[in-house]
Protein 1
Amino acid sequence: MTKVLISPGKYLQGAGELSNIGKHTKAYGTKPLIIISEGGYKRVGDQVKASFDNENAQAVFEFFGGECSKREIDRLKGIVAENKCDMIVGIGGGKIFDTAKAVAYYCGAPVVICPTIASTDAPCSALSVIYTDEGVFEEYLFLPRNPNLVLMDTDIISKSPVRLTMAGIGDALATYFEARACYRKGADTCAGGKATEAAMALAELCYDTLLDEGLKAKLALEAGVCTKSVEKIIEANTLLSGLGFESGGLAGAHAIHNGLTVLEECHHMYHGEKVAFGTITQLVLENEDSDTLGDIIGFCIELGLPVTLGQLGVTQITEEKIMKVAEAAAADSDTLHNMPFAVTAKDVYAAIMAADRLGRYFLGE
């Protein structure tokens, strides 16, 4: 039995660090392709360009097409070749990171990830989630190495919409429960082996940090300030969850998220918001004790995370519709089979409907 733990080459978190990106990346190359949204460029483009200029690096900026799809990856590979770029930098959110990592892999280049939000655990991982051009989950692309550098500028992240950081908590909330399921099953993790004790400890620390600091961080962010709680949540959402999910394993929560992507009415919801509901559904599958289940649902309600299908945008709930979600979640290629017991699409359907009813109960509906 081989145990494996993997991580980015360096994780760097602090106020104002995006202004130092040129200095932090000069060991990796001198002509970066910077993948960024048009809005992101307006906010930080001049700052990033000046930092690279100060290090005599020639930055090439390209706006992200909107989906981490094979078409978008191929388009950006062409730009790398055309401009002879020797490094890939992704600045923004989760789909930009996944795209940057995939492009770097296919081009054989180092990759630097610079989140402007703390909404997913994608930054640290050696994994890209590939979607169709329409935004439906297609496959996981497992990569041979993690990013060379993950750079978190807490000044920028703390100014992002509060809902995005809360979505990051929703994504990170699954980390411990999915790692626990994989550990019990003895399943291989995304790192390519069994979970180490270190990965399990990181996953549990992630969970404890979320419950201890989540509400305080939400209130601080709503007040427009970056406190120690906010700093801890940024680290939990990104580093602890990133290492915990990748070297601890994925199971039911993310499979149910992937199933929800087949419903067009859920496409406006953030990844972590769907994962939060997936976590509740996984706990129903496991028949988790009432106290823990109630704590998780109450925590999600406090943070504004969805606990019902209606909150996810599913206003007309039919057996046919939810069964499609369940069947997609139970696909042979997904991680539902890392649960420590056999799970069928019928089981998932029942758990989704029960989770929805529990959520409505706690909301007083």
Note: The chain has two domains: 11-157, 162-363.
Protein 2
Amino acid sequence: MKKINDLQATEVNQRPRILGQEPVSANAHQPNPDPDYIVQRFLFPGEVSMFAGPSNLGKSAIVASIAAHVAMGRDFCGMRVSRAAILYVAAEAAKGVLKRAFPFLRQKSGRAAAFGVLDMPVDLSDPELVRRFAADAKAFRDYHGCDDLVVVFDTLNLCMGDGDENSSRDTGRVLANANYLAKTTNAHVLIVHHMGASETSRPRGSTTLTANVDTGFTLHKADESHPDGTVFIRVNKQREDEKPAPLAFKIKGFEIGYNRHGEKTTVPWAVPFKPDSSLIESQTIKSANKPEPTLASRRAKDLLRVLTHLHQQDGGEWHKRKEVGQMSGEPFNQIRQNSDTMRKQVNAALNALLSEGKIEKAGDSVRLCAAGDRATV
């Protein structure tokens, strides 16, 4: 009887651990109906995705389009977006990435976007290097005042060192390190890869590249019934949520000026189709009903983020209220098309920051308060 009592006491006082870790109780788990996301139903924090497509069909332009929408906190292809810092590892062509992001980030609303391009490969097969990279990536995210982070590796074959993409061992090691990066930084890690010449439904190389990712999507050219330059993404795998319908894009040229010979110069531009396109989901996702004070607080926090970023760039220049509103993120998306409502809500958010002493004003212009200064109300 004593042994039984001792065993019962041990079970009550100390739960058993397996290899040093306590198992999660499945019967006590309650799934979250509103999970965190980067792009709703598409990209999630703490996960790894792989985007594969043929060469010269617009992969990098589409990734730049996704990244720009996320960096600005703008809804994408009919899906909600949570603003995040973008760290784009451009192992293949950094200038090409910058050109493809330019059509979106050129406008004033892009000035406060956290979108950094790293002009070098990062060896995902090296665990020590990935640990160092993870620490730097978190510092990059925190510097830009973002809660979330997206890390893009473009492309896989240049970010796996001496590894062989056809080897399950080498690709498994790469994806294990990518998962480590995602989990330790709570980032979404997006890996860009190629398709094989004869295979149009999966990434080139080992099947591990399909099996060991959370989200897998591929790029395809639309049939002849659609305009030239039309391509679409098909989500083939989605662990976190239901798969979104195909996402359609028009790959076109964006005019940036003229060269020395008077010839028009363009850069590639991946323009998402409207949500009612026959290739993408037509159902509008309704926003959750949240208390107005919470929304007002989020809007004030977003404009403080904009002014903080501008202060880091210019050291204290004054900025018109309207310009600050143009650089706002997702808390203002639902009213952005109504200029009068947008103006009133931007003013309300800025006035809240003024009353808290976080910013100061001069006429119709505002700026971040310097340390120790008092706001002028």
Note: Residues 292-368 form a domain with the Arc Repressor Mutant, subunit A fold (CATH 1.10.10).
Protein 3
Amino acid sequence: MNAKVKSLCGYIFPAMGGLFVTYLYNVVDGIFVGQGVGSAALGAVNIAVPFITFVVAIAVMFPMGGATVVAIRMGREDKKGANQAFMTAVTLTLAVSVLLMIVGIVFSQQIVDISGASKLSDEMRKMAADYLLYYSAFSIPMLMSTCLSVFVRNDGSPTLSFIGMCVGAIANIFLDWLFIFPFGMGIIGAAVASGLGQVFSVLVLLSHFWNKKGRLKLNLIKLEITLVKKICKRGVPEAISQLTTPVTALCYNIMLASLVGDIGVSTFSVLSFIYSLANAILSGGAQGLQPLWGNSYGKKDTGEINWLFRCGITINLVLSVLVCSTLFFFDKPVICIFNSDTELVQTASKALPLFSLSFIPMALNLIYTSFLYSTKRTKQSNVIAVSRGIIIKAMAICSIPMLFGKEMIWVAPFIAETITLIIAITITKRTKLIFQ
């Protein structure tokens, strides 16, 4: 196998696997809760999703921004500067995780009410608050596992990064079963299982640094404001790109709670779990390319940068078509994995084929966003990320059912992603690659 292709596969597929496993935590919770507690509990988990994914989206800014800086500095053989960027990102992630843990615990009921729970049944509202409270208690391992997996992958151990995520997922699956079925802990058991799974993941990932397997080291540093700003600047596009999940979930929860009620929120709960896994696979392709683009940029290798871009577009396009086709033909079996309630299956099976169409333009938008911020075109990347993740997506979800009927709400993400893709292609063609 060609060395370039081998390197490409060695980063992309572990990144996809790692992100897939990360998002699998919430999905596994959804499956066990849907089968072991009921459809109301399934909707309750989804009500908590906007805050949880918002936390992850904000926190991912530090490891992704730090990883970009690390990759460029490693390309320049600046090992000391690379380690400074690494530890700065870790410190920022830890600080934010503590803050968000406190907020999630203290204001759990208020947060789920803002997310749409105030218009739902008292049962679903209470379960949503309980799930969020216990999930938030594990904010530190939850965010640190994401952070460390990025740097372990970038530090030459993509396989260990993937293994760390897998260990956490396997622990989560076993503990979900244990807490929900034998122990009867319900939705609280699902939240605790997810948190403990992340603890196992962090322990595996830390072994990379304890055993000194790479060039990055864990040590005490003094934060430099200039470097903090640089990391945040480089990480903002990825954070905004990941914000599409909580924005989508929040808008859908609010609209469906008003237009349809509990069954509408439960239906979107199933779709959002499926969406999160598709997003993980496609984001993994973009994130896996990030260190390769950073190194190529540091070496000023234009040919390699463009080759990696073409590979990313091709890989994500093929994967998105495969995912979309699978969901189109196997919609009901996939939905029944979560819950076999007749009304839920009927409603969700009509929505899923329309909803999954958005995965195709989304796959390409993720590549464009990562390509631009990895090659120091942060402003242009921000425009695409903001358009996709916040402005156009929110406008589409809120306006389309009002204009064309509530059944058309499931087409809104496809329209938003397609408009964003047109913007992304236009911006990329008009922006030259400049080495700094």
Note: Residues 3-430 form one domain.
Protein 4
Amino acid sequence: MTVPAPVRSALGLLLAGVQNPPADLQALVIAPAAGRCGPAANGPVDAFRDHGVLHTTVGTTAVTLRVLSAQHTRCWLLSCDLPGQMSSVGGPMSGVEVLPAAVTDTAQLNEFMLDRGLGGDWPQVVRFGSADRLLVAFTDGIRPHAAVHARDASPKPSRGGDIRVAVLGAGVIGKRVIHEVMSDDRFTLAGVVVRSANTFVHARPDVPYYAFDEDTARTLPTQGVGVRGRLEDLLTQADVVIDCGPSRSGAARAALYREAGIRSVFCGGERDSTLGPVVHPALSSEELLSAQSVRLTSCNTTALARVVAALAPASIAEVDVTVVRCCTDTDKAGKGITNGAVLGPTPSHHAQDLVSVVPGLRASSLALTVPMDAGHVIHARISLAPQLSRRAALARLADASRLNVIHEGSTIDQVHRRATMKTPWHNRYDLDVQVVDTGTPDRLDLWLALDNEAITIPEALDVLAATTAGPARGETVGAGPVGKNAAT
């Protein structure tokens, strides 16, 4: 094994950034599973692989490298000591960027770069924290003379719409809602409520932030985040709030929304029926969609609802599904299972939620969880009513919006599908539908592949658009840079 080119480039940048390069340097390299960043077809699974010791010379420094590869695909890591010169590595002139304290692992690092619009193959070397031993990360796309602070994530300004939207939360769902609201001429972003400065908040200082409570109002400025007020202040300036907080936490905030007289839309995962009906734009009545408080379907239920809507509920005799859920989101490396599968012993909530949207539908669902973060997969078995032939059903799926029917015999590779998307965060808004030919004339067997972080965003915007803009209730915060809505 020779010294990989990205490692040599990173070493060159590190040593060029110190005043007196050492005569020799020992470093540890942790390589991506396939020896390169991005989707990996093979590599060490639940293990580290030792590639031995390599020797090279960078400038005037003799370098000894111990190379390991691990079960990851996001970047390269290099750790070494530069005694007496640590403070200069990551300074303004070193060509190495120091990461915010909120970034503590490579999952957060990758998401931070995506938040900034630099993509998953960013051009610079980045340094973790201020530990005594230097730890830096880089990708195959490292370019020694790249502009470290280049960013193209901010969408172009829209004209600003009549519906003023407040967003609570800037996690994997919240930040996508923020981006699309800022990009859509139907809406104006009134502000975003946060509890802490996560990677998105650090990456997007242009967004108008509001503190969740008094404690947050005190701590956010110490983390370099400007705040324009508190949650209660923002609610007086908006027509609707979309609550993208942690699952099953919305009930704790519902009273605030009611007291403010503001319409509330809760993201999927809320089980409390007092928060309003579960709705889907293609299956719910206009009256339900515009209710004062509503709950959006979860990601998997959204996928199933799209299929049911395409086929028409009256044309379906029964739906039986098995949901294969990823154990975590792309930015949460500390969450989930590493090696195994967790099988649900009881029916999952998906069928129940679907029936709440389509009363009278016969549906059942089971779920299991597996160690991946590239989206969910559903095996759907749909028994057709006598009036709908299998051929006609397939034609309806092919003509439906937000469905991408994959030709029979083709393969869906979730990781590669995500990697090839050109949308922010590699979002996949469409549902991939793979038809499995079982030879049964009155039944459809389908694989449904979805992006758990993005699939609900188009429906969320549809439900927000059912809001009636209210009279002016104070000065509305400007939306900042925005771009064309990719979710419609």
Note: The chain has three domains: 5-138, 163-297+459-464, 299-453.
